[in-house]
Prior knowledge:
Number of domains: 2
CATH topology of the largest domain: DHBP synthase
Distance between the termini: 51 Å
CATH superfamily of the largest domain: DHBP synthase
CATH architecture of the largest domain: Alpha-Beta Complex
Number of strands: 16
Structural class: alpha/beta
Mean pLDDT: 95
Order of helices and strands: EHEEHEHEHEHEHEEEHEHEHEEHEHE
Number of helices: 11
CATH class of the largest domain: Alpha Beta
Radius of gyration: 20 Å
Strand content: 15-25%
Shape: globular
Largest sheet: 11 strands, mixed
Bound molecules: adenosine monophosphate, magnesium ion
Amino acid sequence: METKLIKIQDSEWIKDEELAEAARIIREGGLVAFPTETVYGLGANALNEDAARKIYAAKGRPSDNPLIAHISCMEELEPLVKEIPEAGRKLAEAYWPGPLTMVFPKSEIVPYGTTGGLDTVAVRMPSDPIAGRLIALSGVPIAAPSANTSGRPSPTTAQHVWQDMNGKIEMILDGGPVGIGVESTIVDVSGPVPVLLRPGAVTMEMLEAVAGQVEIDPAIQGPPREDLRPKAPGMKYRHYAPHGDLILVEGDLEAVVERINSLSREREEEGCRVGVICTEETRERYHYGEIRSVGQRAKEETIAHNLFAVLREFDDLGVDYIYSESFSRDHLGQAIMNRLTKAAGYHVIHV
Ligand code: AMP
Ligand code: MG
């Protein structure tokens, strides 16, 4: 299949003609990758089981890992869900459109092919203007997981999507690099107390400020356990494993820098290729291996923004070992550390 790459000239002034063909492809059951404020999504008609099946095939994703349905306005939520619980209504008012996905009891019209066989449906209203306009023009909710091959880092540029999806989907809309860079926060509001299933840019602190008590699913905190059937089925899969061994070093920053330097020197002496994930504040203090700053500690959003691109770069370079600094687990740091610890297979050295 030939994949069309369409550059959107100005995402603040989108012309409907620019998105008309993409919307037609979605309506007719095809696949279009498009930018959102979190990461690039791989979109298909969420109400069409055959279209959803194509998403799983293009990504190589296990079909019991459910998809998020994307909507462009509140009216589009009602037909998809059995009810909108109070917490869901409040959170939608506060954070939609934005990087928050909520899990609701699903209505009859949402096929099990989209929800991975679950009786719940995950819904998000993205704030990216290209995403919003595409959904509205399509006239259907768009199921869209991240537009990467399953097991690779989520794509934050159209070039990342092209690397993984060229030849497998009808179209890629290029809206430039995304803003946030990590996937949406997921909260299950179908039970009596909201449960955080995946941390993201709408932080735990922000959720509690609006919804009161929020629980954290145990699967977020540590390695997947065989005996725990996770609420978010995606949590049982190793999210992304770089080709090289990723090891996080956590503790006092001085000691972290020292340990990473000594580990990377040892590995280089053994003839291995080493990558180091550091920050603007510490960059000058590393001396061995391929050194990449992921952003500024003082501005956590820069770290979220660059994280997946740096991990992709190390895959492309074919390094054998990656040593990474750690970050605080508060606010956006919870999402950053969640992605990093999963990518490291929970291999953390404490210093
Ligand atoms: P991605 O599309 O790659 O951002 O991943 C979507 C994730 O959303 C899945 O891996 C699931 O963990 C989660 N998800 C989607 N639908 C549901 C649902 N109905 N219940 C719980 N989690 C869900
Ligand atoms: Mg994904």
